[in-house]
C-alpha cells in the first residue's frame, strides 16, 4: 500500500501531537541537519501503518506495535507499507519511493469480534 505524505499532513500531525520540532516543519532546520526537506515524524509513520493495516483487516485489533526507524522519510514523498502475515505477528516494512527502507516493525493482532 502506498501513501503520499504531504507537508500539509505533517503540519496537521505536528499540531495534533504538539510535536512541533523544527526538523519536521522548517526547511532551514532540516537543511542544517543535512536533509533536503523536513522529515516526517516517526510516530506519524507508525500511525499510518496501523491505519492502513486496519482498513484492510477490519476484524483485527492491534494489541502491540514495535517499530524501528532506520532512515528518515522526507516530506512530500510517497511511502510504501508492506505487511506480511507471519505465524503470530504481522511484519511491517516501510520504504521510500527510492526503495530505501524507512522502518521495520511488527504488530501483534487478535480478532476484534
UniProtKB/TrEMBL annotation:
Residues 3-84 form the MaoC-like domain. It holds the Pfam family MaoC_dehydratas. Gene3D superfamilies: Hotdog Thioesterase. It comes from the Bacteria. InterPro entries: HotDog_dom_sf (IPR029069), MaoC-like_dom (IPR002539), UPF0336/Enoyl-CoA_hydratase (IPR050965). CDD domains: R_hydratase_like. This is MaoC family dehydratase. It comes from Paenibacillus polygoni.
Amino acid at each position: 500500500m502506498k501513501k503520499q505524505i504531504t507537508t500539509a499532513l505533517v503540519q496537521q500531525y505536528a499540531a495534533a501531537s504538539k510535536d512541533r520540532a523544527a526538523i519536521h516543519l522548517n526547511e532551514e532546520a532540516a537543511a542544517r541537519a543535512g536533509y533536503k526537506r523536513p522529515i516526517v515524524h516517526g510516530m506519524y509513520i507508525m500511525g499510518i501503518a496501523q491505519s492502513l493495516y486496519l482498513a484492510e483487516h477490519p476484524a483485527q485489533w492491534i494489541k502491540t506495535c514495535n517499530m524501528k526507524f532506520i532512515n528518515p522519510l522526507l516530506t512530500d514523498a510517497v511511502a510504501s507499507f508492506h505487511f506480511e502475515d507471519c505465524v503470530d505477528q504481522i511484519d511491517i516494512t516501510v520504504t521510500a519511493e527510492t526503495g530505501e527502507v524507512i522502518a521495520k516493525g511488527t504488530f501483534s493482532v487478535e480478532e476484534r469480534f
